[in-house]
Amino acid sequence: MKLYTHISPSHEAMAAEFLLPSATEFDVTIFRGQQYGEGRWKTSHWCAGLRDKARSMLRAAEESAGEIFVWADADVVFLKPCKTRLSELLGDRDIACQHERHPGYLCTGFFIARSTPAIRQVFTTVATAPYLSAQGDQEIFNDHKHVLNWASLPSAEFWTRGHGGTIPATARVYHANFIIGIAEKMQALREVQEELNNE
Questions:
Q1: Which DSSP category does 17 fall into?
Q2: Which of 85, 97, 74, 104 lies closest to 176 in space, CA to CA?
Q3: pLDDT score of 44 more than 70
Q4: Residue 147 falls within a domain, yes or no?
């Protein structure tokens, strides 16, 4: 199964330490993006970087037409095998995403998808939308997900800092979102690996 990711220069070291060596179940394709300033959250540079990432997600869907693929942001680490489990959770749906604030608000930083015409249309919309300082790919995706047959991945297995509390021992994937700063993300990823390795 193919896994796609998008890496800008500022995220190279993080992906090299965590995502890439942990994604051993997958055939990984890397799309490399430009660096837009410091990419601070909710700035024009941040939005430009998200536009690049959205174009990479569309490219992944186009290259996978009719097939199943996985998307993972550069701040994801795999903690346990999950390819079979992801396929089970996708079932006959178009997409199954990690969620954030609640199970109905989907995260475009980690998902498994079947590249249907509907998926490609939604990602075309996301990739071509005007990006404002307060809006990114995820907000636009959630605005258009109603045309998809979608599901949320269970947080007990596909965990993010935004879920709150302590990472469960059942976690298969950790996504270091809701953390600002590359160094801070990398520290959080190290701590999660160490915590689970010591159990």
A1: I
A2: 74
A3: no
A4: yes
In this model, does residue 4 exceed pLDDT 80?
Answer: yes
Question: Is the Cα torsion angle 58, 46, 23, 81 positive or negative in sign?
Answer: negative
pLDDT in tens, 45-61: 667 778 889 999 999 99
What's the distance, CA 106 to chain centroid?
10
175 assigned to some structural domain:
no
Structural domain contains residue 181: no
Please state whether the predicted TM-score (pTM) of the whole model is above 0.85: yes
CATH number at residue 75: 3.90.550.10
Handedness of CA 90, 98, 105, 138 (dihedral sign): negative
Residue 54, Cβ density class (10 Å: 0-12 exposed, 13-18 middle, ≥19 buried): buried
Domain boundaries, position 15 = 2-153
